[in-house]
């Protein structure tokens, strides 16, 4: 296998298992890697230098980093419905059968037609699109199609994600973000007191940079300390250690959200496991050990494949045994590149030169490297990277301050150029708390300060470089956090570390251009590799007045997209600061917002997808409806039968049949979903008198009454029938959709407005299965089931009684929504289905049937009963013809407002009925009512159609509408206009009570 | 025609969703880390004291059931065949279970209807709420997937009940007494427990299926109704 991987070292590499080779495919080519490899390390081991094309210029790009900050190495991982775009190869663990494709190229990575953009790049500077596609006016929509095709990163699969996602929640004493040396030391200290600890790390294994660096702890390789630390945490019963888990958002009150990639490292997830899991933590103390991110240097053509972060070069070597190059040059403004040099030399590799911007580097590390024979160019810069398909050499010149250096460059051959612009603390989560950052001039980074009292940053996240300091700080923070969170004291030992101390870095990352070379001039100095933003673009933004960082970001696109500028923001704002002649802390940073790295929508949805997208509420008769082939309609969270089609029937056929059967014999309808509220207490009558517009105090026991509730502003809130079950007990019904809101409102009144009233309210919607039995034969049907005299004399309209129904305790109500003689039966829910099936069978024997919402709606429209579309929050009782329900003898909620002049206007839109003048053309719900559809625009609107139906009894389309002037227009001819379809129907204004206006059928 | 109706429980343990997810032997295992069991035939009497009647109502309950309701919020107490759950200020659920014959506890509960009349609002919720028992070595971890409450064994122990949302659905979760759990490393505080989760009847199928899905990784067994 090693032979297949030209860049794999045959000894080094603790992260990989050489006994477990893995085959994978990248852009159709087959490669080998080892278990433990990332896609980036495996491709580097195979000598693959170009892994993607850049966003705008389509330039070749190689792997640049070794972590989640990666700007270049993005791929579409997996195929088909599981394809995931913009996946960072540096975080993808390879698995057998892995398939990945590079992005942003067409037709192939090696031969990309859009790389012509590079040739016209002088015209494609920041703001190009804004300036160019402004004119001619209105053409943007045409340009956009083309630009969209050329732009963007990866593309989504367009198919439904077949995998599962879920959420999990934890409360902890101490949450530690980052399991590097500082985080692990903190966890070890916190663990010892029995505090509840969670420690998260975004990489596949704990250790942070201990896995990438060669360090000694307690006189042994740091792996020993790391293994022992991890083992002790895993063995403890009070520590949750999660790897592959990125804390991406830090919200109020120490609420931290993280995403765990549970099964991303396999082609097809284990069916028992989710692909990803969204964690939320509520922590008493948060310790941020998020590490730091190495920054690049902006010199000409610094984007050539082969130019990498110096730390990444060393990390790939130490952890994966990958030697990215045979000839390496390192370019740095600080000491950490010397670590890379030492590690390469230890591994038997060659370092051609170190180019150090500092005038007099003098650290022990520097001396060690020089003593090993590596040329060190101090006070020097790399002015340009050279190469076609990949890096072949770089130009080195003496530094001339900020000015272009004079003379001719020394060209050093190399295939890898490790750059280090210093290490910037990963302050994202700290900053998300709203806490400030402080500019540290010495090495040009922002460090976290003034964290909230229950949060602290430690280790490299504070700008600390030395391992020993990080471990000490970690232990102390773990101890302190535990004491703060639990009140228990803690002691911990700090390990002894031998580490080479690093010296002061230099806070400069913009490298002056060197002399021009051939056709390509002086080259491009990239600041943001992901968005192709150069030093010149930032200067252009400044020149054009976009001097604030937020404006600069939006003008240049710097810091956008998947990496959110982890390797570019800092350099960009220091350049802007120099342009403005102020200190970088005066320029400030853009706002750090969640997420730290991209989060899949699936993880945010969790289990709430597909059939469980919303909690579906089913009535006790649901299985019967489904078995009978009911077509369902959702009402709030409930599903209710819309109609019960027989073979070949349309909705209109079925509904007409159900209406006629009900009006001629008997129909049965599941009305369980109506809200039912049990109201008990000595003050129940008084309470109802206040919340309903009409009186309830004198309602006799055993009687029901229709009631109207208005809001404080006088608009109708809800309606329903309320029955008096006893001296101090009422049962209120509400509309299906308002069951929750009405109960909340009643609780609100009782708890805050009238706490003196002795009333208890509770929902019993779920306790009772309810069905209505309507039609001339309803009493015949019912008499076979109840143990009650239901003659009209004994049980008249609006009577209520407890009874037994088929042997079980039940409640019977003689109320009607359909306008027919009708009864409502309530049985305890578990009996609902059997009671219902017996009743429907009996109805069918009598020539009737079960009916659904469509028939229910038709019948209520025929009767002019108001429902949801009329109770729209803009109608008063008077608008709906409910003046008769406004009591003058008592006060009620909203009463004062009903006297407002605007509510008395004769021109208010009020409920009317409509019929097509030709007796046959259907009217559309939502149609606008106008006098003359051809009047000059804007056409005056008189109102709109709220509900439509075809009345099988009247054999005509009918409608309810809210029309200005209401029934004063009785007999007028108006137009129901539906401009979306260019339709108008000539309609006549009629009474909304289309059928049986006197209610003779209902009363029997 | 008089015919005594049969109760039909709210949960279908063989729904298409459950069959498609819990079909293989590997998941539906005897070693299941989570056991889900519908408990459909409970009686639930909701008792909410009228103004100033709280102490009196507590005394009556204690005298009848020989157990005083919890006087702290979110507390539960229990006796032979019943549990009393705190569901609000001076409001309780008396949950009783009938086996083949009517239990003493349910007879006592029925007698409360008379003795507490005029002292408290009494509402039967036995058909309106559906109970699901969740037990097993990973029961706590499953609850912590749907609710943001703290289900660590030190924070939610027998004697505690709480009203919360489970994946967006209102539920009441009651921690039942159980044998001391085996200690294990890692996330041990989120291991063994026995819980009764009460939800609205209409949402019970949704909640049951969601619980089953959340339990898949631990191995889930669905036990017959009792």
Describe this structure in words.
The complex is a heterodimer of chains A (1004) and B (226). Chain A contains 26 helices and 50 strands. In chain A, strands 8, 9, 12, 13, 14, 15 and 28 form a seven-stranded mixed beta sheet that branches. In chain A, strands 41-42-43-40-34-44 form a six-stranded mixed beta sheet. In chain A, strands 45-48-47-46-49-50 form a six-stranded antiparallel β-barrel. With 1004 residues, chain A is α+β, with helices and mostly antiparallel strands. The longest helix of chain A is centred in the middle third of the chain and has 20 residues. The model of chain A has no long low-confidence stretch (mean pLDDT 93). Chain A starts with 16 loop residues before the first strand and ends with a helix. In chain B, strand 8 and strand 9 form a beta hairpin. The radius of gyration of chain B is 18 Å and the shape is globular. Helices cover 22% and strands 31% of the residues of chain B. Chain B is of the alpha+beta class and 226 residues long. The longest helix of chain B is centred in the N-terminal third of the chain and has 12 residues. The mean pLDDT of chain B is 89. The chains are: A alpha+beta (1004), B alpha+beta (226). At the A-B interface, strand 8, strand 12, strand 39 and helix 22 of A face strand 6, helix 4 and helix 5 of B.
